[in-house]
Amino acid sequence: MSTIRITKEFRFEAAHALRGYDGPCKSIHGHSYELSVTVTGTPVGDKESPKAGMVMDFGDLKKIIKKNIIDSVDHALILNKDYPVEDVQKIREVFCNIVWVDYQPTSENLLTDFSKRIIPLLPEGVKLFSLRLRETANSYAEWYASDNT
After folding, report:
1. Going from the N-terminus, what domains does the chain have, and what CATH number goes with each?
2. Catalytic residue status for 75
3. Mean pLDDT of successive 10-residue stretches along the chain, which has 149 residues
4. Which pTM was predicted?
5. Active site (annotated) includes residue 31
């Protein structure tokens, strides 16, 4: 049986700021992110299975990504935990949905985080192949499993 890749796309709105950055992205700003999740595997060969011919049910992939990524970052402000306490207090006064992370919230680092969340949740025989996070119409970052082994 052939190895096949399937991709599911997601969209979410989020803001971030890059603490210590030397350009305009040091200020809080938002993006309409587009996340593409590609998994690979062999389609189910059991003709009696309700999943016959599928690498993975797109609906199951959607549930995993929505619950473990989209629901936490959609319409959130994503910030590095390293902000000084006085800044954190001011930010909390203005923003109600803040996601604090242990890294600079760049697209590259978000993809690394997302990959770590997704991999253990995939069904047996299905592997994360790649992630793409589009930040703007002409800018995106990609993560490939083959680059991270």
Report:
1. 4-147 (3.30.479.10)
2. yes
3. 94 96 95 98 94 96 98 97 85 92 98 98 97 97 96
4. 0.94
5. no
